[in-house]
Write a structure and sequence with these properties.
about 45% helix, single chain, about 60 residues, alpha+beta, 3 helices, 2 strands
């Protein structure tokens, strides 16, 4: 999952789930864990929270 986000910065959880062939719930849980661990940064669209995406943390 981390490699996919690295290769596709700005990918949404839904896009990541489709690309990896796993449930969106699984992706969301793992993205949250990677964000909590400081490996990913959450990028949220101002007007549309559903368009949140992830990128590698600096």
């Amino acid at each position: 999952m981390l490699a996919h986000v690295a290769a596709h910065p700005g990918a949404t959880p839904r896009q990541t789930a489709r690309a990896l062939g796993v449930a969106e719930k699984v992706v969301a849980r793992n993205l949250a864990r990677l964000t909590d661990d400081g490996l990913l940064a959450l990028v949220e669209a101002d007007a549309v929270p559903a368009l949140r995406s992830y990128r590698l943390a600096c």
